[in-house]
Amino acid sequence: MMDDAEPGAIDPVEDGGPALPGFEPAPSGAAGYQVLARKYRPQTFPDLIGQEPMVRTLTNAFAAGRIAHAYMLTGVRGIGKTTTARLIARALNFETDTIKAPAISLDPPGLHCAAITRSSHVDVLEMDAASRTGIGDIRELLDGVRYAPVSARYKVYIIDEVHMLSTAAFNALLKTLEEPPPHVKFIFATTEIRKVPVTVLSRCQRFDLKRVDRAVLAEHLAKICEIEGAPVEPEGLMAIARAAEGSVRDALSLLDQAIVQAEGGGPVSAAQVRDMLGLADRTRVLDLLEAALEHRAADALTELRHQYDSGADPVVLMRDLLDYLHAMTRLKAAGPDADLAEARETVARLDALSQAHSLASLGRLWKTALTGLDDVRTAPDPSAAVEMAVIRLMSAASLPSPEDAARLLAGAPRTQVEAAARPAPEAPDAGPQGRIVPFARPAAPAAAPLEDDDDPDEEEDIADAPAGPSTLEALIGDIEAAREIGLKLDVERFVRLVSLRPGALAYEAAPGAPSDLGGRLARFLQDQTGGRWLVDGSARNGQETIADRRRREAEAERDTVMKDPAVIHALSVFPGSELIAIETSPAPLETSRDRQETKR
């Protein structure tokens, strides 16, 4: 299934060792060790794992005698393009004592199979376009087209990495490719199909070799481990399959490396495989995701630091988080029957996490993590970037949808909003913007304080919302009564009130506001009232802060005092003096006699 063979290379069928069912075992006695990627190269079409559509199409075409004169094979590295090209060449020239026509069934091997597999057949020419790109190379190759094959049925030209050919070389190939002699077949392979001219593509039958599914690839690796007598835990094989990204050659190369991790003849553990790959334990990654989505910031950051200190790659961490978020979204959309290729316990945990989020929320979380992955890849300090990505993920997990936030601030019944919103055990430190993202404010004056009216929906909203302070001064009084002095000072200095209604607080954050002010306010209000509060710090056109109002009133009072004739006279009597402070005399205490006189 590998596509890394070189002309003249020794094929696995001559290098000894067992083979998978359908793979031709090699004779014993070969010197030296042969890597798994070559030892288990497919010998028949059914051995091409994960490429059933292509095999089915070729089988039907050969059975009907509708054999194309040129094939284009494309796919990622290590997916089996060169191996498939050799199998097609063998099928075109298949011949036994009883079969004298092209055939897909290559078992038992035909007269020409061994030589074609070794890249030593005189009528099957392989050319690497990466090293022979010029028009002279193509002309030299095409000079032999006019001659009939020496011993085989067809003369087959296999050109690997065909996209590397120059424009002149492609042009030289076009005429022959369009009308080749009946005894000539072309097979091209490329990883960059977009670089191949359309004029060439239109003259070929194209096959896109797809990445092998993780579960299928892990099962393939398990069979090889059984044959090799080198057990590897299933979770370790799945980790290798994920790291290979659908490439069979990469997976076998990693398996080769993993097998030697065994100690004392025992099986290779999943932890050893993860250490070899530089991956974090995916169970711990799921623990990290749970902590982030449940707003346990300290637990999430501690777990993240432990994984990083253990050698986890920040990029791989973000990709695993993306995989889990994608799996949660599939579970939310398709239900528990969604095929995730994950352990049953993992699926159960992901399903429980997905129940607390809507599809829109999960999509937003995935997009947040995807942005974080880009940041981790380009940041000068990947460990700091992955921490920031997890923090943003925590913040995004606490946000209601923009539609729900807009409905609530516009006065929609809170019961409708709460039905779609995800319940949260506590309000996170979501920054000065509180618990919602910025959104387009409605044309109606949604920021205006609640007033009495006859709107039944408004009354229902107020009845369902948690009772709380109705003015900013009352809120500050409640904070002061709870001895939250730091929060009180921050509210006085940085909160420019826009609206305050039961269950909802909207304000404009003044410059210099702490990043966690919105989350602290939401927590305080929830603790005081026993209900969830929507705290929006992204509003605009807010009133002045309490501190600004006090400064303004103090300045106005100072201006008034400075205009008082007595003060003017005092300053003139004492040259160089200045007004330092203004003290207001306390109101005289009311006596019992005063109260009696008032009653009369």
Overview of the molecule:
The structure is a single chain. Helices cover 48% and strands 7% of the residues. By secondary structure, it is an alpha/beta fold. The chain has 4 domains: 158 residues, P-loop containing nucleotide triphosphate hydrolases (Rossmann fold, 3-Layer(aba) Sandwich); 51 residues, no CATH class; 116 residues, Zinc Finger, Delta Prime, domain 3 (Up-down Bundle), CATH 1.20.272.10; 145 residues, no CATH class. It has a 5-stranded parallel β-sheet with strand order 2-3-4-1-5, with helices on one face. It has a 3-stranded mixed β-sheet with strand order 6-7-8, with helices on both faces. α5 links the parallel β2 and β3. The N terminus is likely disordered.
Beta-sheet strand percentage? Answer: 5-15%
The number of helical elements comes to 26
Unreliable stretches (pLDDT < 50, length at least 5) are 1-19, 21-30, 413-463, 589-593
The first-to-last residue Cα distance is 109 Å
Taking all residues together, what is the mean pLDDT?
Answer: 79
CATH top level label of the largest domain = Alpha Beta
Secondary-structure-derived class: alpha/beta
Key attributes of the depicted protein:
48% helix, 7% strand, Zinc Finger, Delta Prime, domain 3, alpha/beta, five-stranded parallel β-sheet, 600 residues, three-stranded mixed β-sheet, 26 helices
SSE topology sketch:
Layout: H1 36-39, H2 52-64, E1 70-74, H3 81-92, H4 113-117, E2 124-128, H5 135-142, E3 155-160, H6 167-178, E4 184-190, H7 198-201, E5 205-208, H8 214-228, H9 234-244, H10 248-259, H11 270-277, H12 282-293, H13 297-309, H14 314-334, H15 344-354, H16 359-378, H17 382-397, H18 402-409, H19 414-420, H20 456-464, H21 472-481, H22 485-494, E6 495-501, E7 504-509, H23 517-529, E8 534-536, H24 546-562, H25 565-573, H26 592-599
Parallel strand pairs: 1-4, 1-5, 2-3, 3-4, 7-8
Antiparallel strand pairs: 6-7
Helix pairs in contact: 5-6, 8-9, 9-10, 9-11, 12-13, 12-14, 13-17, 14-15, 14-16, 14-17, 16-17, 18-19, 21-22
